[in-house]
Design a protein that fits this description.
about 260 residues, globular, Rossmann fold, about 35% helix, alpha/beta, 6-stranded mixed beta sheet
Length: about 260
């Protein structure tokens, strides 16, 4: 079997509930989620707020456990975090005592790859990608929110995890930088062909980057559509096919919104 056709990640009959300590009230975040994802796919998750998109990412990251069902990677159940599953959060999570350059280099240092033939070249490339060569010696507290998020994003990308988890990673960026980073993420993904799973509220971003778009409904969170994006990269946002996908997904989201 082609490596890119192998089922890498499975969510099997997943339900997730959260209980409030103060009043024992239970929130049912996810219900009966079944999803198979293959090596080399780029999956976009879209849906109304509160439908459990970020909960799915945290389950895959091993940060939380399902109430029912199981999540497996290569048929092994996820029981906790792993460096093979790299996550970029909505807000930047940088080490405040390390400079921009050292934050980006940190994963390579931990893997013993910083002094490899191209280790430092990768760090330089990432600094160039995010346009922060002149800020390499600055600390996170000296950066704007958008600059810090760019650093957090490339710090995860540089380690080339088997599964890349993206929780609205570009939401804080200006439109120009956001589009550049979309292309850079896609370039790295196409080079290494890891599985990418991204949460976004931007339908155009979901279509532009995704090989599949999963549409979710809320209360409780469930999958209502799984749409394969059959368009070659790079994609044209003004093409007739792109617009058809946009209308299809917006119609699904409109239906979901009416049921909240």
């Amino acid at each position: 079997m082609d490596e890119n056709n192998k089922i890498l990640l499975k969510l099997e009959n997943i339900s997730k509930s959260f209980a409030k300590v103060e009043n024992d009230e239970v929130t049912h975040a996810l219900d009966c989620i079944d999803l198979e994802m293959r090596s080399g796919e780029f999956i976009s998750l879209v849906g109304p707020s509160g439908c459990g998109k970020s909960t799915i990412l945290r389950l895959v990251a091993g940060l939380i456990q399902p109430t029912l069902g199981k999540v497996t990677v290569n048929e092994k159940e996820i029981t906790g975090p792993s460096p093979e599953r790299g996550m970029v959060f909505q807000k930047p999570t940088l080490f405040p005592w390390l400079t921009v350059e050292k934050n980006i280099a940190f994963p390579l240092k931990m893997q013993g790859r910083l002094n490899d033939a191209n280790g430092k070249e990768k760090v330089e490339h990432m600094l160039h990608v995010i346009g922060l060569e002149g800020f390499r010696d600055d600390y996170p507290g000296q950066l704007s929110g958008g600059m810090a998020q760019r650093v957090a994003l490339v710090r995860t990308l540089i380690s080339q995890p088997e599964i890349l988890l993206l929780d609205e990673p570009l939401g804080a960026l200006d439109a120009f930088t956001r589009m550049n980073m979309q292309d850079e993420i896609l370039s790295m993904w196409r080079e290494h062909r890891q599985l990418a799973l991204m949460v976004t509220h931007d339908v155009d971003e979901a279509i532009y980057m995704g090989t599949r778009v999963i549409v979710m409904d809320a209360n409780p969170g469930r999958i209502i559509a799984d749409i394969k994006i059959e368009e070659e990269f790079p994609r044209d946002r003004s093409s007739e096919r792109f617009i058809r996908y946009r209308n299809m997904i917006l119609n699904q989201l409109h239906f979901a919104g009416r049921n909240i």
